[in-house]
Prior knowledge:
Elements: H1 18-42, E1 51-55, H2 58-63, H3 74-88, E2 92-96, H4 105-108, H5 115-129
Parallel strand pairs: 1-2
Amino acid sequence: xAPVYWMSKKQTSVETSSFGSEFIAxxxxxxxxxxxxxxxxxxxxxxxxxxxxxxxxxxxLYNTSIPESTLKKKSQSIAYHxxxxxxARNVWRTAYVNTHLNPADLLxxxxxxxxxxxxxxxxxxxxxxxxxx
Length: 133
């Protein structure tokens, strides 16, 4: 069992591509992970191993694993270096999740009623309350 945290809020910067906005969102996620790990250590709870950060944008995930990536925008560059530093220190790892298996899409995209939406709702309920038949 692991804690699951998600949020939805209007971003403070305007990005011209999904690459930029997803990189900024990944930076916010990793900042939260860093803060949570710090709080746990201050309470005497050891944090061993790394956390996983899942995403469905393969170009963002690829850029977190290559040290020579060059980005044009300053906000993207700051986000890249923050996320990349955590990956290099093995504090977190980035991993790909197929968009058809990503229950976060239910919370961020309008999905029509149907099997895909029902499966996402079932996944979220499973994560929140354990196995539900």
